[in-house]
Structure prediction request, 267 residues.
Amino acid sequence: MLSCVIWASERGKGCAPEEDVALYRSAAFVLHTYKLAETDQIVVLFTQEFGKLRAVARRSHSPRRHVASYYQPLMLLNAIVYGRPGQALYRMHSVDILQALRPLHEDFGLLRCGLYMTELIDVATHEREPAPELFILFHQTLEQLAQTSDAMLLLRRFELQLLTAIGYTPQLLYCAQCTRDLEARAHTFSPRLGGLLCTTCASTVRQTLTVSPEALTYLRRTLAGDTTVEPPTPLAATVQQELERLLHAHLTFCLGRELKSYAFLHL
Prediction:
């Protein structure tokens, strides 16, 4: 969907030039909301064109338009906000649903995965910094989530691609500490250093994880961009658990916090 910025001048009303406002229109997802006074709320949007924006949503007095139900995560919206450029808090002008992604709301397991992805996007992005690559990744993965037979493996792929997009790609080609080439038997990963360690460094670094050859193959294959097809044979449950532990530890260190939705993911 095309997006635009339309400048609306208030000069004709006797206002100073600095009172000019803009309308910002973009495809968007709601990341979360919180109350403002008794009836209003602040909506945190992840927009395709403008990055993360905060906007005040006033209560609708129309009995035909229950706008509050639109401000839910996991729905692709056409959102229009307005305000002076660069301000911290905008105002909602209008919102419409472009894609409801109903399967994600009707299946508790898929809902948990979708909310986990939503929090990852929220923590990994910054206010008013466009991230179109992340927006496309998020949207496409949500669409795939509604159809996949292996939601957990899809989450691992999303985590890896998100890490790459924000500059925290796990280092799997050379030692993350000394930068020497890795030996074939190097299977020790350091979340703090962000990659594999050679056998010499592995003996000196604390808080490491052991990575199986199967998990390493999947990680390298995914980082190489081979993400269009599933693995030739299904990954064993132990390998999937290993991938989850490794990526969770790496994400927690890179993002600087434990995600609240991670525990919810395993209810």
